[in-house]
Amino acid sequence: MHSGSLSFPRIRKILALHRKCIGFFHFHTCFCGSKFGFVSKKLSFEPTGRFYELPFVYIRFNEYSSSYSESKSSVKFVERDNFGDRNSDYDKFGDMGVQDAGELSLFSDPKGGRQKNLHPDFGDFDEVDEEEGEKRGDCSDDDDDFMVLDSCKEPRVQKEDVWRVELGEDEFRHPLVREVCRLIQLKSAWNPTLESDLRHLLRSLKPRHVCAVLLSQVDERVALEFFYWADRQWRYRHNWIVYYVMLEILSKTKLCQGAKRVLRLMTRRGIWCRPEAFGYLMVSYSRAGKLRDAMKVLTLMQKAGIELNLSVCNTAIHVLLMANKLEKALRFFERMQIVGITPNVVTYNCLIKGYCKMNQIEDALLLIAEMPSKNCLPDKVSYHTIMSFLCKENKVKEVRDIIDKMEKDSKLLPDHVTYYTLIHMLSKHGHADEALEFLREAEGKGFQIDKVGYSSIVYSYCKQGKMDEAKSIVNEMLSKGCNPDVVTYTAVVDGFCRIRKLDQAKKMLQQMHKHGCKPNTITYTALLTGICRNGNSLEAREMITACEEEWWTPNAISYSVVMHGLRREGKLSEACNVVREMISKGFFPTSVEINLLIQAQCQEGKMDEAKKFMEECLNKGCAVNAVNFTTLIHGYCKKDDLDAALSLLDDMYLSNKHPDAVTYTTVIDALGKNGRIDEATDFTMKMLKKGLLPTPVTYRTVIHRYCQMGRVEDLLKLLEKMLLRQKCKTVYNQVIEKLCTFGKLEEADKLLARILKTASRTDANTCNMLMESYLSKEMPLSAYRVACRMFNRNLIPDLKLCEKASQQLMSEGKSVEADNLMIRLVERGCLSPQC
């Protein structure tokens, strides 16, 4: 008997009994799928034996089975290594519970099924955009965030339930994984064909392969987009390990809203959320600076019915310490012990690091001394944490005291990890001599230090410019049979180049070849940088040309170093040739590098060469932008070739490079300089119509050119239109000052009322400038009137200007005004009555 001979009433009778239902279901999924292999246009079976013939019956069975299981209060978990071999759409019914079945069931309600929702509610969190850069205020110092610990009343034995997915190289090198990653990189040029190919590959990926695809993405946002896209595909549903891997990826970023959505998606899919999932969300919130939301995750766990475990408590303490909330972390530490969550060595190490971060080394040592009484012995990480912070300040004596304390109190002998930590931290912070002492001590105790330890000391010496010491360390490595690697040699070559000893750098390069260490691209690039700094860019150019003979391949940085060296030496044609060769090799210069070359050519008046170079870069697909066009337009404007500049402005639109406010300002200034003020006005209005906001430079340019030509009325009309788009508080101050510069004092005096409305310090400076202009033309009465207007607005004119105005008024026989001006200064306390 097979499913094709059963009617719906008979199937429903079988479903009435739970055991018969399971037997019937297993029989027909396996028997029909494997024995008969029945395939038709309407009915199909997968090779895995999935029951695809009657999806309605399948859904009803899932609802019935889930409700039966719920009545027995039994929860089925997937083993941590049982990830399955497929991501079939119907796999979700077995692994994810009834929540998704409710979404597909014909009998479910519109809100998602007949079953009671036992999953957490995320509605308590405010929706914040991932792009939002503002940080909300930190949480207060109260203990409201710890109330969730009060629900844990009975002490209990803590179980370590830390879950992680370990992927091997085979998953990352799998052909399907590599092909999917390649298609994801082409997302900017996606079309229906590429998306169809990616959709087809997605259904063939195992869960581990999907995890490998997510972990292979350099940009976490791209990984999150792929995760969302895959989840929307038909006949595919993420395995539960994929969610945890995605959360782990997001925990290393500030994409807290993405992590929250992934966690919400898990609840909708009916996937049981382990405490570690909430821990990932907490860390992501903390990285985004949202400490309050990170701590609210604990309340969210309580509402979900998930008890806190030691792992989440350690995460909470870590989050508080990342936000420099040491006192609050200590209160949380005390509260978790009260409710019976016993801290382990990881908990104590977090607090030790927090103490060290706040430079409270003594408190960290007291905490280590307290650990044995709490049945938790400190490990070497506890001591290494304190040593690392002491090494930053070069406190070698204190470090040795810690080592003695570690041996005496905890019976922990320093091993090679201890010495590696000390050598690395001291070298990193520029204390190479002290690091060398510990290296000698480690070798004296029989520890063999490899090239990594030596290289860190060599790098530190090179960074300080102590090349003799660095070279002696390299020779010592050779004598001990510890051959330096390419990283060590490259550090020495770069160090010699920094102090302009190129001969020594080249000898070190020969020594590399002699001892069988092949220089790489970074080594040659360091040498090229030193040669260019020494003013021998043509020699560096020859090295690039002869790179094939030396068996090394220059990269984009190598070409950029040589190009910038030639540009600084004024060899622009050779620099452009380097860029052309760079493009031919598949390396594209940045828009900044292109702009530097264009600017250098424009400064030498080589406008045609600059334009030709930019057009070549544009045709080759380089990142030419509006700034490059603006630089070239500015060069034409400086040569008074306005026709070429305006033609280039039109070419910007043809190349889909839209001009910005700086471009228009450049053209407006050039037109005003040549007396074509009406055309400048047209371009200003055109800029405003395009929605471009005038910059402060735009205001200064327009004001200067209009005031120069004395067209004040036209200027004021244009400024009113510009102010509607972009406010500028000092615009009328600039107009008055510019009119004073050009000697148009009458027009400037008419605008004085516009600036005296605010009566700021800037307005006082403008009035003083107008007074000085009047006095320079021997018009003291006008200067006196400006001073009186300033007094009426509670502004104090400049004392020296008032004295000068008083003298000119006295010389013209206007003693009343002169005395009144002095009396005003005495009343304001700026002048004593005796004077």
Automatic annotation (TrEMBL):
Superkingdom as given in the UniProt entry: Eukaryota
Keyword Transferase: no
UniProt keyword annotations, A-Z: Repeat
Ranges of compositional bias, category Acidic residues: 123-132
PPR repeat residues: 274-308, 309-343, 344-378, 379-413, 415-449, 450-484, 485-519, 520-554, 555-589, 590-624, 625-659, 660-694, 695-725
Keyword Nucleotide-binding among record annotations: no
Disordered, as annotated region: 108-141
NCBIfam families: PPR (TIGR00756)
Protein family per UniProt: Belongs to the PPR family. P subfamily.
Protein name: Pentacotripeptide-repeat region of PRORP domain-containing protein
Organism: Corchorus olitorius
Lineage of origin: Eukaryota, Viridiplantae, Streptophyta, Embryophyta, Tracheophyta
